[in-house]
Specification:
Elements: H1 5-13, H2 18-22, H3 34-39, E1 69-77, H4 82-101, E2 130-136, E3 174-180, H5 183-196, E4 201-210, H6 235-242, E5 257-266, H7 268-271, H8 276-283, H9 318-322, E6 335-336, E7 339-345, E8 351-361, H10 365-374, E9 384-394, H11 407-410
Antiparallel strand pairs: 1-3, 1-4, 2-3, 2-9, 5-8, 5-9, 6-8, 7-8
Helix pairs in contact: 4-5
Length: 411
Amino acid sequence: MNVSRRKFLKGTAAGAAGTALAGGVLLGGARADGEAARTSGPATEAAYPFHGVNQAGVLTPAPHAKQPFSCVAAFDCTAASQADLTLLMYELTGRAWFLTTGGTPPNLGVGQPPSDSDVLGPTVPADGLTVTLSVGSSLFDDRYGLRSRKPLKLTEMQPFPNDFLDPAWLHGDLLLQLCANHPDTIHHAIRDILKHTSGGMQLRWKMEGYGSPPRPSGTPRNLLGFKDGTANPTGTLASSLIWVDDPAEPAWAQGGSYQVVRLIRMLVEFWDRVSINEQQNMFGRRRDSGAPLDGNSEFDIPNYAADPHGYVIPLDSHIRLANPRTRATADQRIIRRSYNYDLGVDENGNLQAGHIFIAYQQDIERQFETIQKRLINEPLVDYVQPFGGGYFFALPGVRDANDWFGRGLLS
């Protein structure tokens, strides 16, 4: 059946996040296949170190082998003063340390509410959990006296052409990114944090996501069926592109990273009616193997110089616009840490599923925004609808047991 792209978009734009706003956020239905995870999928660690110069959950584990489940949750700070904000940061540090390490919650006695929900049983497993805390530009208004300490490149995310931004799904004073090996660990962690921080912050929006194991190998796929994150930088190159080291930035910000979150609905029913040839030309890769259209395997490097007119890999394909692979664009690359989501069905009876785009970098303007501007009006815009998210700054790591989130910022 033929369906007009613009007609379909018009019918779904208003409801891009409508069902999610009307009810609770539902976890995506696809769980990582156990056998695939054991054989060809990402390694699942029992625990990742909480303390360090940089926060966990950015490069740990490696970008191609992140934990299968995630949650991004934005908060408005309700702390009454900078002193109360400091207490909130102490509490967040303590909860994150316990949850990512695991252990037995204290028994408070039969006359008190239990200290833990017991969702994970009487002993809390670490289960590969990482807790990454970021701050939004709104935290640096006049409430806490932090305006002069704001990271230089931290702004409020503005809409790009082809965005359908909904204020209910935008921004926040704080952002928690939780990643773990199982969905109940994510639920337990966010519930525990909410219980212990109710006097200092209020949940603004939340989206839970999942990643698939490699099928059949290599990089996991997004809900459009294509491998996602193939060109992610790794190793030393990755570190050189994400951790802030600019001496012009506030001293406390050194070792942090700018974080972009984009909630992107994918119009999967409409996408499924598009020919495989058109799909592959839009991405610039083969759907089955992930290879560039001029290559044979996923990690082959496309040779744009041999195809200047785009006869093989179209000039407006996603991979060619996102990463032109020139000297001038080499420092624009980002680290992606994205997940899929599924919210069920919208008010028009269409699947409400898509992509939690998460990216880290040293400079949002130089990296993400430059890339995004090249992608304006790419062919894929007829099949995706960005509707939420924001810009944030991932705090430097908690170095040891005497340190805490935001110590440099608030001291």
